[in-house]
Amino acid sequence: MKRYLVLENGMTFAGEAFGASSDVIAEIVFTTAMTGYVETLTDLSYTGQAVVQTFPLIGNYGVMPEDAESEKISVSAYIVREYCLTPSNFRSRLDLDSYLKRHGIPGIRGIDTRALTRVLRNYGTMNGMITDDLKKADTESIKRYRIEKPVAEVSTDKIRFLEDNGSKKIALLDFGVKENIIRSLQRRKCDIYVLPHNTSAREILSLRPDGIFLTNGPGDPTDNRDVIDTLKALLPYRIPTMGICLGHQLLALANGFKTEKLKFGHRGANHPVRNTKNGKVYITSQNHGYAVVSDSIQPSVAEEWFVNVNDFSNEGLLYKNTPAFSVQFHPEACGGPQDTAFLFDEFMKLMEVPNAER
Predict the structure, then answer these.
(1) Does domain 2-147 sit in CATH 3.50.30.20?
(2) Is there a catalytic annotation at residue 330?
(3) Which of 37, 69, 157, 201 could bridge across to 233 with cysteines, CB 3.0–4.6 Å?
């Protein structure tokens, strides 16, 4: 069956249908990752977005639900050049087409995804509609689409306590957490309170946490005014804090810095970042469309720790006014490189510092 992708600028790509049969309007983004498609599909940071895989063959090792980063597929649609009908992997439980159908997610295959990626790189990220009927594609409606309050949609709605008789107690603010972030903390013997995104500063302080963790998540960071105000209220208490991705951006906004939307974002498992302290370059997993504006960083408050090697955008901050650091990339990297997993150990060390020395 024919299926079409219609971009907001009127460009149309024709392909074949797979996955569910529903129409969808979404923000069209691309990822350069060659593997880890199960983790990509279930990364809650992709909420409201249709993902284009630049790598031409997807699905060859099947689907392993236990590798998922959340309970559901979070992308709105999936766009590939070719998907494998006969996956080969002893761990595989089902094929990609069946997986998408099970979760009601439409896909389109057989289009030139590299040509599509060039369009997104040249003109910037834009909205698009995936449909089986071109008559339904109204470019004005496609342009008007906006991801509304995605953090509230993906965050937990109740407190979860994950007890492991750990040495440290973490208050984790869930903006769309990836499961491997939780696993990374549990491997380091942490007890974790997984908290709704709108948990107040008073409620967080009542838990008497050893550290605060700010997770990844979808959407424009400036839309989360209540969270930013909560983080501002927590700053004077000097609780060790680590942020990833959206958490990095929200902590920056709470400290008076600015964020901006990137032309086409960073998504994939092969993004190089440079440590400004020692010059080392790490290969990282990333998924974000916004970044902290480097020129807005106040030297008395924080220093730039990591910088993107490709476009020199900010990738990490070390704070001076509070025991905190945050990064734009994903040190838990599942699936992706493990170069920066040591940052979780840095967070553990930060929590070991006596209060009087912070």
Answers:
(1) yes
(2) yes
(3) 201
